[in-house]
Amino acid sequence: MGFYKVHSATILGLKVEFVQVEADAGNGLPMFHMVGYLSSEVKEAAERVRTAMRNTGYTMPAKKIVINLSPACVRKKGSVFDLPIAVAVLGAMGRFPEKAVEDILLAGELGLDGKLQPAEGILPIVLEAKRAGFRCCVIPKSNEDEGRLAQGIQIFGAETLEEVCRWLKGEYMPQMEKPDKEEAHGTEEWDIDYSDIQGQEAVKRATMVAVAGGHNLLYVGPPGSGKTMLAKRIPTILPPLDREESLEITGIYSTAGLLKRENPLIWQRPFREVHHTVTRAALIGGGRIPSPGEATLAHGGVLFLDELAEFPRGVLEVLRQPLEEKCIHLARQQGAYIFPADFMLVAATNPCPCGMAPGPQCTCTPGQIRNYQGKLSQPFLDRIDICMEAPKVEYEELTGKGTGMDSRGMREKVMLARMRQMERFQEEKLTKNAQMGQNEIEKYCRLGKEEERMMRQAYEVMNLTVRSYHKVLKVARTIADLEEKEEIDLAALREALGYRVMDKEYWG
Amino acid sequence: MSEMWYTYWLACVEGITGDRKCELCRKNGSAEAVYYIEEKGIREQIITEKEWGILKESKKKRNWREAYQKAADRGIQMAVRGQNNYPKRFEELAGMPYALFFIGKMPQEGIPSVAVVGARRCSSYGEKMTLRFVERLAESGIQIISGMALGIDGMAHRAALNVGGKTFAVLGGGADVCYPAAHKGLYKDLIKRGGILSEQPPGTPPVAWHFPARNRLISGLADVVLVMEAKEKSGSLITADMALEQGRDIYALPGMVTEPLSCGCNRLIRQGAGILLNEEDLLEELVIKGLLKKKNAIISDTKNKIKLETKENLVYSKLGLYPRGLDDLQRETGLTPQEVMGICVSLQLKGYIQERSKNYYVRVK
């Protein structure tokens, strides 16, 4: 009888904080008391633990039991503390050897029957435990696959509290190390492909250019023209994730509770479609201790905003920081949280309320069209480099065989172009053409005489602004990279001019 | 220049006619003197009591010196009656304003001007014809005057700009108020390559009753007025009436008798207006009238022959007055998407086509 200490962890935002669960069983009025800045789900652990222990065959002694979760200044959230609390109490009752849990981290929720329930955020916790030098992690069986992704740390996927107790007493030896399952971080396979899209070669090409240079993209087109289809396939041509990125993204999804139990590793770049009724908090993350929002869930992949014109301005404005800085800072009373948010922004809009402009079927008045397009926020449009029309699909295309570019061919080109960019920007702090500022543009987007002349002409005829002029140059640089050319040529400039985002005042 | 703001003040005063303002200036010597007319002027019969009241009120309204400076800083200039830049064509007419505000340039004297007016909700026939006539006129060095409204007016300005001609818009609101807002791009181009004129003080919103008065300026600035499309009762016919009173020649574009948009034009023709049949006739008549020098008139269509590469020509031939998308063009020409887009961009740069909506193009030449 006495004092016992167990290691566990909690997640604040996306950061893992280690927590020590201490239990003390001493003389006094029999009671079960928990302290340590606990959220209500942690406080409720008392009832779960007590019942689970009884159903496992341990009776709670008639002692004054105090549980402390330290450090006391960190808010404890989540349900992973059930198991460590139970083990600490049993330890304090003298059921386990003194040093049994010294370099072991425990996390998991208990059912009343003593079974361990799946919990959220296991992967980041295990990863952090490995970094901190723990020997072993005890986690619920259903999270075992997820935990094993960390590699290089022993994982005990326990099914019941009893199993854990028997192990700690030395009566049972679970299989801690399993051969790495190949499919757990297996090959990338997609059930969607750009060859599913008939025709639309021009906009597929524009998409490829956008991906190659990391440019943000806007589709304009009538309803049913496949804007969403086009956007959904972008992850299939983005460079494949390497293991580190993959673990980072899996960690984020684990925290958000969005992970599959089987083959939990995320090897597909995420695609997050956001509806226009989304709130700011849902988009960038919110809460007293913020949980990640859509922008963070799209980290490493694509954030897709359909019906851009319907989004309230305020909601779009909050995306400006992640678009510039590739991360989100959320300041709370407890401290500041930083979430990663390095995504490719893809937006889609109809050209007018009925969607058919400028065709003859359009039933909107010029005023309606102007109002509709006026809703697009200019600062937001300024952050989009490529704008392309997604045309209505014609009958012949609908019935035709899948032709033209497929994802594989497109990705190969994208990878080559990305490589050229990496080489070029070796000495700079950037990796993609889209990140170029004015200085880099001057340095890397030099034009020949002919090209210079054409841009001057375009500047006047097409009423380019300084900003749109620079955007055209950046996109032209990417096109030249795709075509494996050193210099930006006339064809690249022409294509880039075709992709430019038109000034709103010239629309309609 | 120190007393320019007095002139600005007088030009902005509402409720006194342009002619009367001129008379006051003449009698008193200058706008500055008018500003300092004292109450005893009423007894001396320099000014009526009502006018004195209006002037007194307007002086209190704002700091006119500052207002003038602000307007000048925004590039708004003035053409005052009696000064060099005031249109000579106004001098023989009654009811013309004391001063015009303008941004950009004023129409040049000694160069023929043609006003083009027509319906806002015009047909593609009206648009196409406007394009055809105005381009030839502008190429022949004629200044095009219109009102920057949607439809025919806007097309007329665009057509003149397309061929690098001079064109001027007379607005119903202040010269610094772009109306309609959809023509913001056109408005900027007009300032660059022509001018925006108005008799209303800067900042005046475009209210409906200013427009008939504005129409008298459009016809007043022109030697000839072309009515492209007009319904039976329309602003374009008001302009035609004004033009008749001012002794301007009127030409109307004939159309089907069943077509409401042509009714006004056909009626004008019945009343004796000239008929617009083709550009050559119109130019020849202008030459006969002595408005245009023969050597300037581009009678035959030799200059405008399209010099394009084969592929460009192929794409160009598929374009018309209705916007067409890249996808259609690509299907019909059989070129690759990049090729089609490249060609569309270069046609755009050469001024043959315009992008009306994202990747939708129309022929403008």
What would you note in describing this structure?
The complex is a heterodimer of chains A (508) and B (365). With 508 residues, chain A is α/β, with parallel strands linked by helices. Chain A has two domains: 3-180, Ribosomal Protein S5, domain 2 (2-Layer Sandwich); 194-430, P-loop containing nucleotide triphosphate hydrolases (Rossmann fold), CATH 3.40.50. Chain A has helices at 40-43, 45-56, 82-92, 122-132, 144-148, 161-169, 201-213, 227-232, 243-255, 280-284, 294-297, 313-317, 320-325, 366-374, 378-381, 395-399, 407-424, 438-444, 449-461, 466-482, 490-498, and strands at residues 3-12, 15-26, 31-35, 64-70, 104-106, 109-110, 116-117, 136-140, 154-158, 217-220, 271-274, 302-305, 327-332, 335-340, 344-349, 386-389. In chain A, helix 5 links the parallel strand 8 and strand 9 (154-158). In chain A, helix 7 (201-213) packs parallel to helix 17 (407-424) and helix 7 (201-213) crosses helix 20. By secondary structure, chain B is of the alpha/beta class. Chain B has 16 helices and twelve strands. In chain B, strand 8, helix 12 (260-270) and strand 9 form a beta-alpha-beta unit. The longest helix of chain B has 16 residues, at 124-139. The chains are: A alpha/beta (508), B alpha/beta (365).
Integer count of domains of chain B: 3
The largest sheet of chain B, given as strand count, sense and whether it forms a barrel, is: 9 strands, mixed
Distance between the termini of chain A: 81 Å
Unreliable stretches of chain B (pLDDT < 50, length at least 5) are none
Radius of gyration of chain B: 23 Å
Q: CATH architecture of the largest domain in chain B, please?
A: 3-Layer(aba) Sandwich
Beta-strand share of residues of chain B: 5-15%
- Report the major sheet of chain A: 5 strands, parallel
Structural classification of chain B: alpha/beta
In CATH terms, the superfamily of the largest domain in chain A is P-loop containing nucleotide triphosphate hydrolases
CATH class of the largest domain in chain A: Alpha Beta
Shape of chain B: elongated
Largest interface: A-B, 36 and 32 residues
Portion in helices of chain B = 40-55%
Q: Any idea what the CATH architecture of the largest domain in chain A is?
A: 3-Layer(aba) Sandwich
Order of secondary-structure elements of chain B: HHHHHEHEEHEHEHEHEHEHEHHEHHEE
Give the tally of structural domains of chain A: 2
Biggest β-sheet: strands ordered side by side in the sheet of chain B: 1-2-6-5-4-3-7-8-9
Number of helices, counting only DSSP H or I runs of 4 residues or more of chain A: 21
